[in-house]
Specification:
The structure is a homodimer. Chain A is α/β, with parallel strands linked by helices. In chain A, about 35% of the residues lie in helices and about 15% in strands. Chain A folds into 2 domains: about 260 residues, Rossmann fold, CATH 3.40.50.1820; about 100 residues, Rna Polymerase Sigma Factor, Chain: A (Orthogonal Bundle), CATH 1.10.1740.110. In chain A, the strands form 3 sheets. In chain A, strands 1-4-8-5-9-10-11-12 form an 8-stranded mixed sheet, with helices on both faces. In chain A, α1 crosses α2, α3 runs antiparallel to α4 and α4 packs across α6. The N and C termini of chain A lie far apart (about 50 Å).
Chain lengths: ~375, ~375
């Protein structure tokens, strides 16, 4: 597949030119954070909600993406009258550090005008969160009302509560875990190897060759996508149905194959392979307990946030037992925590889908916290 | 990765030159079945056990493979004093039709001396079983004492019982199912796309280019390998341990990554990519109920075999519920069936590993059947 590079789009952003020191020790000469906001910041600057996006998400939470033209990825959750009600809250979402939607990442230009590409330094979930903190401060907000996110977004929520224990009133980690499991790492590694195997990857310098490793990235996306769904969801959506009807001898394609290929081929039109490598690596290395002497409770010592931990019953990528382990650690840290497992057959992706139980849970938790925080409607 | 083609090895075989009509309608001008036997056929020709291998298995059940030099893949199960006791039974194992260890498959030569390659016709699990039947008849055996196999081997066991209801006394489908699920198909499709994406695949004509699609095949193997293990097994074996100690900032590799890469790179030295495509397709299309008017019980109408259905508690590729569905269908068909779920954390691969409970179950079932069948020790 010979595809040109991703379209360059203008993204709203803020640029910090004073240098940004990463966990790896490298200093980025400048930090750009691309972001979107929805709603109005109240006079007390107390109603700000930070939404953290997942691996392949972006800042276009509640409006069409300028790259794909598709509607925002969380319009069912964020908007007027939605659980994260933009009539009530000021919602912020930033493209993560290392991403490819306008924030500093492998696609960004270095001071000498060349692209970072594979020279882009490794980043951590904490680096992503520290970049978001810069944005939040830039917006004049000292303390967020809430930080919310699913999957890798949930990892960021946990890191926020750990790194900035005073800077958020409420924390909602959804379909997340305190670390990436061996199986999760394994699936990411398959995707990375698929990208490396693509000759169009050119050792990461595909920009210089005017191409992208589209086939490898598509395979990576396909492998990952299976993990986002449950077996039940796949069986319900596709079963063993063939694309073109009639069981001929292998002439036809199963619907699930066609679906996966579509997932792969559309993904490469919107996502950068080096960003994919950078961000999957950040997720793999996320391990809050390891960062705190192998004591997860210590990661949350002193946090003042109220937690609502959410898991989905059929999520096998970030299973409920990981959320329970998180809740136990938060309890040991004497944090204020509630936990809800949403019964669903939709798998990990349930946090992005129509799940009324989840939406009611989120709306209720935020409303209760808003009352306690004295946020005026 | 620029690797030469697989080493050619001489495999014991039988050649049927009278043509072999496949389910797809194509006639193979000749059928070669490569096989190995262990033990001695008794005078009544009543003690033969056919072992069916899985996707990437071969006929070298209980002796070193001439290609890899590694010990047989089921030495814990097949051998003197083992559950499938070669002092008692005459054990046969054939490389499947479509395979790459000597049986007719994509690597085989056509009458004109060229390799089949991608022109090799699609084969079904039933075609594989019909090829085995030719071998069994060639060996002078009218009725097998038992047919045993795990994973795709289990699919063959079911097909044997369905297609030849009088030709086996006992059937042991292990970690199997009556059809491939949407999730299973999806994982296979990821592997196929990884192979197709490798430029060394050359549209399947890699033999002509003196190369093999090693990177693509390795990625396919890595993705598949994750599905053979349980999350618990991965966590126990590797957890989040790093290969070279000390948590540097992403300089180190997780052990699980190193392990997967090793799995991928050794696999391509012993397996043919076109065989992988052919056999995964055969598995995907396996659906015994669909072949019998969507009634799984009808598939087993008239079978005289005694069944022992075995599943493993942590197998998420062929989960226990699939075995239970099989047992229910066998019950509806008034078949003689017992069912055992082996508690283990080793996942799908448990059937290949040290699982004393499984081995005792198998030994006991066979011994009981041998007594009923009047097989003299």
């Amino acid at each position: 597949m010979d595809l040109p590079d991703l379209p360059e789009a203008e993204h709203q952003n803020v640029r910090f030119a004073d240098g940004f020191v990463l966990d790896c020790g490298t200093t980025l000469p400048e930090l750009t954070v691309a972001y979107r906001t929805y709603g109005t910041l109240d006079a007390a600057r107390a109603n700000a909600v930070l939404v953290c996006h997942a691996l392949t998400g972006d800042q276009y939470v509640a409006e069409p993406s300028p790259v794909t033209g598709k509607e925002g990825w969380w319009t069912q959750v964020v908007g007027p009258g939605r659980p994260v009600d933009t009539d009530r809250y000021f919602v912020i979402c930033a493209n993560v550090l290392g991403g490819c939607m306008g924030s500093t990442g492998p696609r960004s230009l270095r001071p000498d005008g060349s692209r970072w590409g594979t020279d882009f330094p490794p980043v951590t979930i904490r680096d992503m969160v520290r970049a978001q903190k810069r944005l939040v401060e830039h917006l004049g907000i000292e303390r967020l009302f809430a930080v919310i996110g699913g999957s890798m977004g949930g990892m960021q929520v946990l890191e926020w509560a750990s790194t900035y224990p005073d800077a958020l009133f409420a924390a909602v980690p959804i379909a997340a875990a305190s670390h990436h499991s061996a199986q999760n790492i394994a699936f990411h590694e398959v995707g990375r190897q698929a990208i490396f195997a693509d000759p169009e990857y050119h050792g990461g310098r595909y920009h210089e060759h005017g191409t992208i490793p589209a086939r490898g990235l598509a395979v990576a996306r396909m492998a990952a996508h299976i993990t986002y769904l449950s077996e039940e969801a796949l069986a319900r959506k596709f079963g063993r149905r063939l694309q073109n009807g009639g069981l001929s001898i292998f002439g036809d394609m199963f619907q699930v194959e066609s679906y996966l290929r579509h997932q792969g081929s559309t993904f490469v039109r919107r996502f950068d392979a080096n960003s994919y490598l950078t961000i999957t690596r950040a997720m793999d290395y996320f391990d809050l307990a390891a960062d705190h002497g192998d004591d997860l409770a210590a990661a949350f010592a002193g946090t003042k946030a109220r937690f609502c931990v959410v898991s989905f019953s059929s999520d096998w990528l970030f299973p409920t037992r990981e959320s329970r382990a998180l809740v136990r650690a938060l309890n040991r840290a004497a944090a204020n925590v509630s936990f809800v497992e949403i019964p669903t057959d939709k798998g990990h992706d349930a946090f992005l889908l129509d799940e009324p139980d989840f939406h009611r849970t989120l709306a209720g938790f935020l409303a209760g916290c808003a009352e306690r925080a004295g946020i005026v409607r």
